Amino acid sequence: MIFFWAFVVGGLICVIGQIMFDVFKLTPAHTLSTFVVIGALLDGFGLYEPFIDFAGAGATIPITSFGNSLVHGAMAEAEKHGLVGVISGMFEVTSAGISAAIIFGMIGAILFKPKG
Length: 116
Prior knowledge:
InterPro entries: Spore_V_AE, SpoVA. Pfam families: SpoVAC_SpoVAEB (PF03862). The chain crosses the membrane at residues 6-24, 83-112. The protein has one domain (2-111). It has 6 helices and no strands. It has helices at 2-22, 28-44, 48-55, 57-60, 64-81, 83-111.
């Protein structure tokens, strides 16, 4: 059942994104930003962790999880280090994913010829 709920929840998040494109005519940047903010708000209210417990990868793979990670890291470090921890906590939790995206993007650019 774990795989079923991950598939359903991840699919529903994608359907919501597609509706935002088609019905509301939002750009990919607006849709992406909206999902990050939704993930951040849900974590701020303590609702994203139960969502992850229920949906597993269906909640951790979509971009909403990035917003969750930003707020989760900021709140955890704010408890330890105060206001400075808010900024450092966001970078500490998300730095591996951002670094991987930059490195793999660079490797892809080196290995493959872009068409343009």
